[in-house]
Amino acid sequence: MFKFIIRRVLWAIPVILLVILFTFLLMKAIPGGPFTQEKRLPAEILANLNAKYGLDSPWYVQYVRYVWHTFQGDLGVSMTQKGRTVVEIIGNAFPVSMQLGGMAFLLAMLIGVPAGVIAALRHNSWIDYTAMFYSTVGWAIPVFIIGPILILIFSLQLGWFPTSRWEGPKYWVLPVVALGTGLSAYFARLTRGSMLETLQQDYVRTAQAKGLAYRTVVFKHVLRNSLIPVVTQAGPLLGFVITGSFLTEYIFAIPGLGKFYVTSVSNRDYSVVMGLAVLLSGVIVVANLIVDIIYGFLDPRIRYE
Amino acid sequence: MTEEGSSHQIDRTVVIPESLDAGAPLTLKQSTLWGDVIRRFVRNRAGMAGLIVIVIFIIYSTIGPLIRPYGFSEQDFSVAYQLPNAQHWFGTDMFGRDLFVRVAMGGRVSLLVAFAATGVVLVVGILYGSISGFAGGITDNVMMRFVDVLYGLPYLPFAIIMIVLLGSGVVPMLLALAIVSWLTPARLVRGQILTLKQNEYVEAGRAMGASRGRLIFRHLLPNTLGIIVVAMFLEVPAMILGEATLSFLGLGISAPNASWGTLAEEGWKALRSHPWLIILPGLFIAITVLAFNFVGDGFRDAIDPRTKETK
Q: What's the gap in Å between the CA of B202 and the closest CA on chain A?
């Protein structure tokens, strides 16, 4: 198990290095730079600025320098917001995004997994059909439609919750629901499918045949095994949370990381773009790592591949 | 459930035509794989409903603008912000533009981008996956590690960078969507090829001197067609959502062109006063995505009836 974890951790390093390289080259390929303005700067000033931010060296030197600094925890300074470091910008905004994403993820688990379990246990009943309807429709409606509809009903019509911003529990409800709905639908669908498959296994029939209580069969034999695919999907779902939280932040004017996605690219703020790429791919890589490790615990066969 | 199971078995049996007249030659009609699939799909109510909705939407976006006397960007402020009525079947927007025409035109862009991007993704994914799976060894390892790395890229920021790099419009949009989404089909096809290439008929083909290309295209890929069709129907809605998301952020299809995402973005600005403007395109996006999902699920069940009980 230990060797397995070490191998997975070591694998994460080249992944992050290559992600940095891709983002780096893509940003360089976009015409224009952080100091391109409508009024063209005099050549000397431009040269000075480029020298100050290290943009005058060849790209591979810049890349190596960036990687070197990154591994020391220094993501550089923003090229368009004067005097702010990237670490500072991320440090302010990321906790908000994490909070939103985390709560939505939790909500989705708390609704989706039980819904899927009950739907599978009452297969082909009205409960099953209701849960399936919810999971199909919930997954099909994008965040940017659910969000506005929630605002329309619960803040503009009923006045229960504020329409925007992020200043306390009252402000959290609508964004978390908007982001969590699609995710809970996905969890419900996944859990139900996996449960139904497990319920047909021979060992479940054996457990029933030897007279175990229904509760024991469901909790000890079925549930544990059918949650494995749910766990393995957590990695890709994290991508969904990140993407969705960006839209949710946009719709509810939440001061998270989202707004920097577009502005930093359109302003060619190289260091902020790179910082975001490093952060997000780091999150994805770590999430996949955790999933792999949990998977290794849940299913011993994986470790010995 | 047992009833369903047995009916699937009947599907496979040889059908003897009723015309067993004396003298007529005895013909046996063997049912084919795809014949079975289509027959099972037709019996799937959700799948058929989805297919019908898709066909209706395609017809609507094709001929919708032709049957109404309004131009796509024809403004008439005297009729701004109308709800659906006899003159404007879907109402009008802030400039008094007819929404029946605009939603139809938006559908053209949304559906076209989704179909084209899905096509690109499948071609790239199939080629990459089958080469990787067929080659095996180091080639396979390197190709798959490359895919692993790309999986580490965050989807949305990557798509945003691609859009900014390629410029806004229909072609950059579909390329950006395709570039960030070919990974899953590639993995899927590789997995299938890995299993399929163990079969004896591949060995036989090789022994008879068939080229690698012939083995891949003639012997292996046709057997993965089932999962590719399912993947296609599940990829299209993902593309529709991706395009709508980027357009909603003002990054994708921009004026004078419009997609459903662009229309939703216009509606979002008028949410407080005229919510109909976002609800309408929202409905079209959601219903289309639902319909494609139903068709995809229906096809999966039809291709492999065993999944019906579990999925």
A: 26
What residues of B are in contact with residue A145 (Cβ under 8 Å)?
264, 278, 282, 285-286
Q: B242, B254 in Cβ contact below 8 A? A: no
Answer yes or no: do B293 and A261 touch at CB < 8 A: no
Q: What is the full DSSP assignment across A239-258?
A: HHHHHHHHHHHHHHT--SSH
Residue of A123, A144, A164, A241 for testing the chain B interface, max B β-carbons within 10 Å: A144
Of A18, A145, A284, the CB nearest to B285: A145
**Partner-chain residue, chosen from A145, A261, A284, that has the shortest CB–CB distance to B286:** A145
A284–B245: do the CB atoms touch at under 8 Å? no
Strand, helix or coil at B27? Answer: coil
For A264, which DSSP code?
H
Cβ-based contacts of A156 with chain B (< 8 Å): 271-272
The whole-angstrom separation of Cα A64 and Cα A58 is 10
At A202 the three-state DSSP class reads: helix
Tokens of A197: 């498959």
Question: Domains in chain B, ordered, with CATH?
Answer: 44-309 (1.10.3720.10)
B267, B279, B311: residue with CB nearest A193: B311
The number of angstroms, rounded, from the C-alpha of B183 to the middle of its chain's C-alpha atoms is 16
The residues, any chain, with a CB within 8 Å of residue B274's CB and separated by 6 or more, are B81, B94, B267
Classify the phi-psi angles of A31: left when phi > 0, otherwise alpha if psi is within -120 to 50, otherwise beta. Answer: beta
Please list the pLDDT of chain A residue by residue as tens digits (305 residues). 677 778 778 877 888 888 888 888 888 888 777 777 666 777 788 888 777 777 777 888 888 888 888 888 888 888 777 778 888 888 888 888 888 988 999 899 899 999 999 999 888 889 998 998 898 888 888 888 899 999 989 988 898 998 888 888 888 889 999 999 988 998 998 899 888 888 888 888 888 888 888 888 888 888 888 888 787 776 667 766 776 688 899 889 888 888 888 888 888 888 888 888 888 888 888 887 787 777 777 776 665 54
Helix orientation angle between A126-140 and B276-303, rounded to the nearest 10 degrees: 120
Within 10 Å of residue A3's Cβ, how many Cβ atoms?
Answer: 8
Backbone angles phi, psi at A294, to 5 degrees: -60, -40
CA dihedral A290, A295, A300, A305 (to 10 degrees): -80
Complex-level ipTM beyond the 0.90 threshold? no
Residue type, A142: P
Nearest alpha carbon to residue B285 among A208, A144, A223, A180: A144
Q: What is the pTM of this model?
A: 0.83
Between CA B107 and CA A39 the distance in angstroms is 40
Buried b (16+ CB within 10 A) or exposed e, A169-187: eebbbbbbbbbbbbbbbbb
Contact check, Cβ <8 Å, B290/A193: no
Interface contact B286, partner A, CB < 8 A: yes
Specify the amino acid at residue A121: L
Pairs across A and B, CB distance < 8 A: 121
CA dist., res. A247 & res. A235, Å (int): 19
